[in-house]
Specification:
mainly alpha; 293 residues; globular; 12 helices
Length: 293
């Protein structure tokens, strides 16, 4: 039973990091209806910028601030130069634009910082820590705590500030929000800037876990089951979906993996997401589409 809880808690801790990546998708989708497939490239660009500055002797805090400023600038540039001119186009057009943009960002990162693999140390060891008789990874606890703190901060920001009120108004009814004087361009700019900040934190945590390499951009693929299960428009759904994915993949790997030859952790979340699509297409907390016929 102790081993079961160790696996379960380890999965939940990983799920918080999945939720952090999914959070960036939800913010942009709620504000503009755009599924930003370039989020993974933004995560890679952030981690690569930070670790490259560290390797050039820049202090940790200054490297973080410079990387943060670079991500905010990159996000604002994407929103202003690429997506704003495409307002009103079909969803598939916007999706293809972000897909192409992801390759542009990855190419720019490679041209700017090189293509070699980097190790990233955040000063937290990955040695097990005994908590209540359970052995848990110190880094997993740190990463989950950091991700959870950021998620809570952003939830408070968008729930109790005028910007958050404007975002909820735009998400509920764009035309009504415009008629009340909400500046849509400002809301989009803020949301994209916040998504850039989320990309930086996610890049540092996942870069420390997996190494800073170009496969890091594929971490967004783990966010897809999270979004399908939790719902594309729900911030709370991203958190719950991340916890479900993290816990289920770890438990499936340990208890079902031996019967199918192992490796189930990589694809089990997609099987779970497929079942949700068949039973509840909008996810646990997503808004159901209602069309007049």
């Amino acid at each position: 039973m102790e081993f079961f809880f160790e696996v379960l808690i380890g999965g939940l801790l990983a799920g918080v990091m999945y939720a952090l990546v999914a959070f960036g998708f939800v913010l942009i989708y709620k504000a503009s209806g755009v599924f930003n497939f370039a989020q993974g490239a933004m995560v890679l660009f952030a981690a690569l910028t930070f670790v490259s500055l560290l390797e050039r002797g820049v202090p940790f805090w200054l490297a973080f601030l410079v990387s943060l400023a670079a991500m905010v600038l990159l996000a604002l540039l994407i929103e202003r130069a690429v997506l704003r001119p495409l307002v009103g186009r079909s969803p598939i057009t916007l999706f293809m634009a972000t897909l192409g943009l992801s390759y542009v960002i990855e190419g720019a990162a490679q041209a700017l910082w090189g293509a070699q693999v980097h190790g990233l140390e955040l000063g937290v060891s990955d040695e097990p820590l005994e908590v209540g008789g359970l052995l848990l990874s110190q880094f997993d606890l740190f990463a989950a705590g950091t991700a959870a703190a950021l998620v809570v901060l952003l939830i408070l920001l968008f729930k109790y500030t005028r910007t958050g009120l404007a975002l909820r108004a735009v998400a509920d009814d764009t035309l009504a929000a415009l008629s009340l004087g909400v500046r849509l361009e400002r809301v989009w700019a803020v949301v994209w800037a916040v998504a850039g900040c989320v990309g930086l934190v996610a890049g540092l945590l996942w870069g420390a876990r997996l190494g800073v390499q170009f496969s890091l951009s594929l971490v967004v693929l783990k966010a897809l089951p999270v979004l399908i299960i939790g719902g594309f428009t729900s911030i709370g759904g991203a958190i719950v979906g991340g916890l479900i994915v993290g816990a289920s993949e770890k438990l499936a790997e340990v208890y079902l993996g031996p019967f199918v030859g192992g490796g189930i952790e990589n694809w089990f979340p997609y099987v779970l997401a497929l079942l949700f699509l068949l039973v509840r297409p909008a996810g646990l907390f997503g808004e159901r589409a209602i069309a007049r016929v």
